[in-house]
Amino acid sequence: QQQVKQSPQSLIVQKGGISIINCAYENTAFDYFPWYQQFPGKGPALLIAIRPDVSEKKEGRFTISFNKSAKQFSLHIMDSQPGDSATYFCAASMSGDYKLSFGAGTTVTVRA
Amino acid sequence: KAGVTQTPRYLIKTRGQQVTLSCSPISGHRSVSWYQQTPGQGLQFLFEYFSETQRNKGNFPGRFSGRQFSNSRSEMNVSTLELGDSALYLCASSLGPSGRAGDTQYFGPGTRLTVL
Known about the structure:
The structure holds two protein chains of two kinds. Chain A is mainly beta. Helices cover 0% and strands 53% of the residues of chain A. Chain A has strands at 4-7, 10-14, 19-25, 33-38, 45-50, 56-59, 62-67, 72-77, 86-92, 101-102, 106-111. In chain A, the strands form two sheets. In chain A, strands 2, 4, 5, 9, 10 and 11 form a six-stranded mixed sheet that branches. In chain A, strands 1-3-8-7-6 form a five-stranded antiparallel sheet, with no helix packed on it. Chain A starts with a strand and ends with a strand. Chain B is mostly beta strands. In chain B, 0% of the residues lie in helices and 52% in strands. Chain B is built from no helices and eleven strands. In chain B, the strands form two sheets. In chain B, strands 2, 4, 5, 6, 9, 10 and 11 form a seven-stranded mixed sheet that branches. In chain B, strands 1-3-8-7 form a four-stranded antiparallel sheet, with no helix packed on it. Chains A and B meet through β5 and β10 of A and β4, β5 and β10 of B.
């Protein structure tokens, strides 16, 4: 049973465009929501993370929007670049659980 | 600072065999987690160790086991391999003393296991 649902499965965006990936969760005990980026042949790498007491967090071209009441959060990649082509995973965890629950992943392709 | 290292990077085994994978965490990190990544199931949590103690275990059969040594290095073992065990096995390390969510996990490159 997937605790974090992620969509879309894949998306294609033109260089300079905006990529948007959405995630939803059910467990209200989750209190940490990271996004990971994974390139082929590599392990996932932390991109950006948010806690539920904040509605938005921005780091460079990457922004997380968080809606606690809807139990949803999303990643926006602004001014998408070909180097952003990768698989993105949302995740959630709760204190004392010592694990990450991952979404299914979204493969982003940025066309030059 | 060196990242998380995993050995071997690639393994080919046959059904019924057993396999041991190794993970060396980032220096100073005491928590090590293991995840299985497959195209069908995505990233699934296997177990987490801190100071040689298993603090959490995912929903995998008992054929999957792990341990952590006093230097924080960790191994996972899969016995009686099945075709469905073919996957990328990822190790992640974090500082880990409090267990508070938000302790960043740093992933290694993984071990690609193929079961024939």
